[in-house]
Amino acid sequence: CRERVADAVVVTGDLLDVPDYILSGDDYYDYRRELFEQETAADYRLLRGQLEACGLPWMVLPGNHDWIPVMAEVFGDQPLTMEVGGYRLVSFWDRDFYSHVPRRLDRERLLWDAMLADQASPPQVHLQHYVITPELNQGWPHTYFEGEFLRCRMVDSGRVVLSLSGHYHRGTELLEDGP
């Protein structure tokens, strides 16, 4: 990691591709979820070991293909915010809900509100799995239900200088909105 002259490593979700039938559970078929859980935890521990060995600060957050309770057992002790290179990195562990539509609710919304209100904060980089903007919902819901609201509040706050997402794997061009 150091040879790439990076300040930090960030993984914006989908560390693993846990099958949907394991994530959603099923009371009809016996998929031996306990075996998947053990193997998933082992894979997350392997990834954590690699991140710890790289010698740089790092953050991970879950994606829609991660098994979040298992991931939280392995990575849940990591801070949700970190200051690196004069910036505050903020990690949001958002979820998708009905019909796989991502939302920023509850603890994540409270953290987000607190970060936007923090007048003493250095410039912030917000990290989430799902897409805030542009709206990318053709074929699969990639964008937050309240994406436009999130975008407007971040721009109006003047504190967020970069917002990175991982869900739309093709990526987009860099979009500039406000300062």
Can you describe what's shown?
The two termini are 30 Å apart. The protein has a four-stranded mixed β-sheet. Strands 1-2 form a two-stranded parallel sheet. Helix 2 (33-53) packs parallel to helix 3. It has 179 residues and is of the alpha/beta class. The chain has five helices and eight strands; from the N terminus they run βααβαββββαβαβ.
List the topology elements.
Elements: E1 9-12, H1 20-23, H2 33-53, E2 58-61, H3 68-75, E3 81-84, E4 87-91, E5 95-96, E6 102-103, H4 106-117, E7 124-127, H5 147-157, E8 160-164
Parallel strand pairs: 1-2, 4-7, 7-8
Antiparallel strand pairs: 3-4, 5-6
Helix pairs in contact: 2-3
Task: List the secondary-structure elements in sequence, H or E.
Answer: EHHEHEEEEHEHE
SS field, number of helical segments: 5
Q: Largest sheet at a glance? A: 4 strands, mixed
Record the strand order, biggest sheet: 3-4-7-8
Give the proportion of residues in helices. 25-40%
Task: Tell me the overall shape.
Answer: globular
Whole-Å distance between the termini? 30 Å
What portion of residues belong to β-strands?
A: 15-25%
**Structural class, judged by helices and strands?**
alpha/beta
Number of strands: 8
* Global mean pLDDT: 93
Radius of gyration equals: 17 Å
Low-pLDDT residue intervals, each spanning 5 or more residues: none
